[in-house]
Amino acid sequence: MASSFSRILSSKRNIGILSLVGGSATVGFLLHRDHVSAGSPVRRRYPASAEYPDLRKHNNCMASSLTPAIYAKLCDKATPNGFTLDQAIQTGVDNPGHPFIKTVGLVAGDEESYEVFADLLDPVIKERHNGYDPRNMRHPTDLDASKIQSGQFDERYVLSSRVRTGRSIRGLSLPPACTRAERREVERVVVDALAGLKGDLTGKYYSLTQMTEKEQQQLIDDHFLFDKPVSPLLTCAGMARDWPDARGIWHNNEKTFLIWINEEDHTRVISMEKGGNMKRVFERFCRGLKEVEHLIQEKGWEFMWNERLGYILTCPSNLGTGLRAGVHVKLPLLSKDARFSKILDNLRLQKRGTGGVDTAAVGGVFDISNLDRLGQSEVQLVQTVVDGVNYLIECEKRLERGQDIKVPPPLKQFK
Amino acid sequence: MPFGNTHNNFKLNYKVEEEFPDLSKHNNHMAKALTKEIYGKLRDKQTPSGYTLDDVIQTGVDNPGHPFIMTVGCVAGDEESYEVFKDLLDPVISDRHGGYKATDKHKTDLNFENLKGGDDLDPNYVLSSRVRTGRSIKGFTLPPHNSRGERRIIEKLSIEALTSLDGEFKGKYYPLKAMTDAEQEQLIADHFLFDKPVSPLLTCAGMARDWPDARGIWHNDNKTFLVWVNEEDHLRVISMQKGGDMREVFRRFCTGLQRIEEIFKKHNHGFMWNEHLGYILTCPSNLGTGLRGGVHVKLPKLSTHAKFEEILTRLRLQKRGTGGVDTASVGGVFDISNADRLGSSEVYQVQLVVDGVKLMVEMEKKLEKGEAIDSMIPAQK
């Protein structure tokens, strides 16, 4: 559960309180930012109708929602940092999408993007997150891992368990828009905080610009190293600029808690281990996240979060919890059953190959994780995965014994 | 990104040291020239259309370069970039164009009659001849910076100008986004179709935004004169044909360009040009004439001769494979073209190609007969 301390700080008018407890340099910077006239209207030479993108061959959430009227209304606006609508939608204009896979097609450049461009972002969020309406719904945040029940899987089936999310540092622009100095500041703030982790979370940071050949090889062998993004979905959004400046990987000595810095988000946080102890993975996840949050707050920083959207990340698809909890699980019989997809759907789960998104399954082993991100809490989503995977294993066992299986009723959303 | 770079003001909250890019592993002209002092001096500036220093250098920051090949590492977003950011671009231009000084004047000569010879390159060796250049339309920003609205107007003006051409230049425009499958097949078979840029040198500079909106290809019915619209420059103009009649290729090139320019001028949109930098294009390497005149020529013996590279250097020529830049030669056939762009005229550069290729073909013939070519090696041009 995000601390009540950060809730007090989450509104700008309480910066006075921050100045009492936080670093004065930080506060000075935050106050100074309000006076930078970066949000002055965008200079335009042609009317909106001449600039409206041709989206007739496009299939993404942005193209579905961006009418000429919305474009005309928003194209003159900029966030206080100077991020514009054209920048937000560029990735969706450049990547028409796929007939079967509907991508999001826009990104946020900063926290304020979700407000300034709400006329576009709200319908996109609604479409992507099953009808969640940011105007009149509240997103629950719950990082109390003790609530998880039956979180230990049968390890004859579950090979590994993993939970990931992202966190953004309030006050600094997001990867599509950040300057080199901002990106370096994100690195500094996070690396400072991580250096304060203790016990089983003690670890080390490996900067991409300075890693030795040996360190690089080890990180590749551990499957920890992330590479410069090649997907045009990311590069067209400007997230690979200045690579590899201020990018890096931190992990604990036990290699069970890992943080990526300045890849697609300020931070991506991953807790994982071999085997089926999802409860322990989630417990470490929550503990680590809370520790890091506490450490950055000591220096006057906080995570981007609000009641409507939960944790703020670059891609609207990752709002809310930003959480993907999943397992690698052996389901050779079930995966060949015609009802497999329907069962997953009703359990609010998705399957991926063992290489992650857009890969194929190998040897009947699947990556199974939660579909949803926004509108339910972390605890609820992890419990959904726990219950769902247990059900899938039961099905697999029944099929092994020659018994029939049942498609479960669909789970209700937005509990 | 187009219009009003308000984000640039926000960056000024940070010190120069905090924003200055890490160029320690870089090998390009921009990285050589960009000091913290220059960065500090130019970072709060913008051109009237809102293009900034960080926009200029982004491609060079993102692409550290190659130990052997020196890329430029910066682009212009508009005509004014070459003025506003001259403290960076002048040294880059000087380094790239053989010491060209800020006070030098560039000569433009598109009178094809000034070319001597060039109609008799031996077609047994010279398989094809080609001249290309680029042109930018005054009053609009360049591909790294232009908005969809601007790009569409550039396309519209280009179509108007090109479709009004007649005689040997009568032709047709094929917009990339409305091409039929049959048209696409034919353009590929003719080797005319250009594709969305994949080179990070171009994509990091923002030139592939909104693809394929307002991009297209025009060519004449004879398939000897071709114009690309809104690829790496507003216009890329190409004249070509099989065989060794470079004179005819150059005649058609000059004539076509002048016709097109007249039409644009009538609509008050001449080409970007000034007497210091010649024709203004997106990449500083294409300033001056923006001209690459070349041939595909069979030089299997000469190309393996120990002095081949030196001969090319002295003739002020460069070699490429038959797939263009960064490709390998196939079957001893090379693409040979002028190395220079700025500081000498179109006629002069094409003359170098004509004279140089003629000499190299004679050398090839001598080597075929088992004779030495040492006495033929030219002095440095």
Automatic annotation (TrEMBL), chain A:
Pfam families membership: ATP-gua_Ptrans (PF00217), ATP-gua_PtransN (PF02807)
One function term, GO molecular function aspect: creatine kinase activity
Enzyme's top EC category: transferase
GO CC list: mitochondrial inner membrane
BP term (GO), one: phosphocreatine biosynthetic process
Coiled coil: none
Keywords attached to this entry: ATP-binding, Kinase, Membrane, Mitochondrion, Mitochondrion inner membrane, Nucleotide-binding, Transferase, Transit peptide
Residue intervals of the Phosphagen kinase C-terminal domain: 157-399
Residues spanning the signal sequence: none
Topological category with respect to the lipid bilayer: Peripheral membrane protein
Record function comment: Reversibly catalyzes the transfer of phosphate between ATP and various phosphogens (e.g. creatine phosphate). Creatine kinase isoenzymes play a central role in energy transduction in tissues with large, fluctuating energy demands, such as skeletal muscle, heart, brain and spermatozoa.
Family of the protein in this entry: Belongs to the ATP:guanido phosphotransferase family.
PANTHER family assigned: ARGININE OR CREATINE KINASE (PTHR11547), CREATINE KINASE U-TYPE, MITOCHONDRIAL (PTHR11547:SF24)
The protein's name: Creatine kinase U-type, mitochondrial
Lineage of source species: Eukaryota, Metazoa, Chordata, Craniata, Vertebrata
Automatic annotation (TrEMBL), chain B:
Residue ranges of domain Phosphagen kinase N-terminal in the record: 11-98
Enzyme Commission (EC) number: 2.7.3.2
Record carries keyword Nucleotidyltransferase: no
CDD domains named among the record's database cross-references: creatine_kinase_like (cd00716)
MF term (GO), any: ATP binding
GO cellular component: extracellular space
Residues that hold ATP according to the record: 128-132, 191, 236, 292-296, 320-325
Domain Phosphagen kinase C-terminal intervals: 125-367
Family (UniProt): Belongs to the ATP:guanido phosphotransferase family.
Protein name per UniProt: creatine kinase
